[in-house]
Amino acid sequence: MNYALSLGVFMAIAVIVAMSLNVSMGYAGLVSIAHGGLMGVGGYTASVLATRYDVPMTVALVAGGVAAAAVGAAFMLAVAWTGAFEFILASFAFQMVLIEGISRWTSVTNGTRGLSAIPRPSLGFGALDSLGAYAAFVGVVTLAAAVAYLAVGRSTFAIRLRALRASVPAVQAAGWNPTALKVAAFAVSAAGAGLAGGLHASMISFAHPADFGLRVSIIAVAYLLVGGVGNMWGAIVGALTLMALPEIVEATNVVPDHLLGPVERIIYGALIMAMVWLRPNGLLPERPIVPRLAAAAGNRRPTVQAVPAG
Amino acid sequence: MNTLYPLLVNGLLEGSRIGIAGLGFALIFFTTRELHFAYGAALAGAGYLFFQLFGRLAWPGWLTVVVVLAASAAGGVAVKVVLYRPLRDHLAILLFSFGLAIVLENVYHVVFGPSDVLPPITFLDRVAELPGPGLTLVRYIDFAGFAAFVVATALLLVVLERSRVGAAIQAVMRDEGMARLVGIRTGQIAVLVYATGSLLGGISGIVHVTRTGVRPDSGFEVVLFAFIVTLLAGGRIGRVALWALVIGVVRALVAWRLPTELSTLLVFVAMLAYLVARAPSPGRRRLQARPVVATGSPS
Asked: I want to staple A68 with a disulfide (CB 3.0 to 4.6 A). Which of A190, B112, B161, B176 is the partner?
């Protein structure tokens, strides 16, 4: 039971990670391999606030999300001019800077020894120390985040981001500021990463740079590649699929225990390759937004046409 | 001076090692605009093949080197022709290449285990003392690596500048579409640079495995630095070699004054700063836009 609960918590965290990355990578077309690093910013902010300054963990979790959003926005502001390709390189360097920075800033982060004794959040009725209570808490938070990100996906903001992905001059011609849109998209995206990082640290009551390394960033990209870039439901499906996969491998008992890690990663890598090769739009491809608008316009058309006729 | 001289020598040697891998990676990137991220994993693969043939099966050294280099080049061609060709754009290649790197690294882990494997000691592990102030010891393999770097740089530059094939490669580097229009077979050029670049990766892998042994993720750091010098060089092969030496020396000097761990952080801060600094300033953008309006007036 405990195993299922903790697996559920990690799956929920993965869902937040995938959905948040979908805002920048899916809608805005900003393929970022810094999502793990931004989780680190959130995770460490929450952990340091909670362990050193006795800030309540619920507040610290929110602060982690805000800190990641701020760091992400600052980064995006600096590299907003880059094209899609240069942005990947920049996000890669940013990931390395974040993780190396966290690893070397020992006075605050305790470096590669990690921060321990990170508390669980406590609500009005007491601390959520039991796994069941924490799982329920994470479930509620994930549900709220999922609803929020689904709402983002349906908003005009997402439509503007998709326009940005398709053509920057078109966005400018429509009177929107592409830099502001990019910064906002990345901040919204990073906020989820930061929150997820905090939840992760609180779950294992430990924060270590390796939990937020390049591998995590690549896996986050893999969630979207598998599930469907630009589709929020796809992001959920991708995260759940890739989280379930290692469990299935483990359950088959074919692979010896000491090789479980590498074999899982081989499957991850092969899945990324297969998806890029065979189904580049993912399991649930991005759906066009236009048909909905077109249908809405179609309903109105008779009245519009009635005017010249009369 | 007594501290600085060995540091400088070590920096240049380190730079030459970055350089060999960097030249191959950059040649591929400049010509095809494809980030062959699995280059690092392929390079580690060359190291493992060397270990297997020379260390375990006791093949003669020269034969092993020839076979490993041929296998590296063939591997590069196979990746390009079989795996990358059907992909629709550079981004797909980058992501696919990430996947391939993860698979290769973990296959090495399964086959050879997680820790370093080291081929048997040969004459290349002997040490010579360099003339100059203080005691500067350099292993033969380091000399060999440096020599390979110098020869590779010179050969590449001569071929690129003086031969027809080199001219064709340069044409593809500048403008692939135009090169195709004037009759250059760009597909063949791409295969050729993958072969050459992967061969350089093979040399880098052999040097790596002989010096320090090879681990599943050995290629990762090598490809990071190859990547950075490629970025800094801005499309010129000669500058790849120069930047590799500069980075090697800077890393050695940083290690002298600051904790070693900081050098990686500094390199990435520099890379990020470089990308940020290349942003066109608003003033420059206006200047670029103006001539379009100005062409109307004869003055």
From this structure: A190
> Per-domain residue ranges for chain A?
2-309
Q: What is the rounded distance in angstroms from the CA atom of residue A281 to the CA atom of residue A289?
A: 16
B165, B217, B191, B176: which is closest to B75 by C-alpha? B191
Tens digits of pLDDT across chain A (310 residues): 788 899 999 999 999 999 999 999 999 999 999 999 999 999 999 999 999 999 999 999 999 999 999 999 999 999 988 887 788 888 989 999 999 999 989 899 998 899 998 999 888 777 788 888 999 999 999 999 999 999 999 899 999 999 999 888 999 999 999 999 999 999 999 999 999 999 999 999 999 999 999 889 988 998 998 898 889 999 999 999 989 888 888 888 888 888 888 888 898 889 889 988 888 888 888 887 666 655 665 555 444 444 444 3
- Between CA B48 and CA B57 the distance in angstroms is 12
Interchain contact, B106 vs A265, CB within 8 Å = yes
Phi then psi dihedrals of residue A256, to 5 deg: -65, 150
Q: Show which of residues 70-89 on chain B sit within 8 Å of chain A, judged by CB atoms.
A: 83, 86-88
- Asked if residue A222 lies in contact with residue A242, where contact means CB atoms within 8 angstroms, the answer is yes
Residues of A whose CB is below 8 A from B99: 222, 268-273, 276
The closest CB to that of B110, out of A262, A268, A269, belongs to: A262
Please give, rounded to a whole number of angstroms, the shortest distance from the CA of B68 to a CA of chain A. 24
Strand, helix or coil for residue A202: helix
CA distance A82 to A262: 35
Hey, which bits of chain A come out as E strands? 115-116, 122-123, 126-127, 206-207
CA-derived radius of gyration, chain B: 21
**Beta strands of B95-245 (E only): which ranges?**
127-130, 136-139
What are B127's strand-pairing partners? B139
Structural domains of chain B in order of their starting residue, each with its CATH number: 4-261 (1.10.3470)
Classified by CATH at the fold level, domain A2-309 comes out as: ABC transporter involved in vitamin B12 uptake, BtuC (1.10.3470)
Say yes or no for a CB contact (<8 Å) between B102 and A101.
no
A177-209 burial, b for 16+ CB within 10 Å, e for fewer? ebeebbbbbbbbbbbbbbbbbbbbbbbeebbbb
CA–CA distance, A222 with A203 (Å, rounded to integer): 23
Chain B residues with CB under 8 Å of A100 CB are 264-265, 268
Residue A21's nearest CA partner among A123, A179, A168, A145 is A145
- Cα–Cα distance between A151 and A232 in angstroms, integer? 10
Q: From start to end of B94-238, where are the E strands?
A: 127-130, 136-139
Taking the CA atoms of B231, B236, B241 and B247 in sequence, report the sign of the dihedral they define: negative
| DSSP summary character for residue A257 | G
Most B CBs within 10 A among A97, A112, A242, hence the mutation to make, goes to A97
- Taking the C-alpha atoms of residue A250 and residue A260, their distance in angstroms, rounded to an integer, is 7
Task: Please indicate if any CB of chain A lies within 8 Å of the CB of B109.
Answer: yes
Neighbour-count burial for A250-259, b at 16+ CB within 10 Å, e otherwise: eeeeeeeeee
Q: Which of A93, A269, A277 sits opposite B275 (nearest CB)?
A: A93
Distance (Å) of CA B211 to CA A296, B44, B123:
68, 13, 12
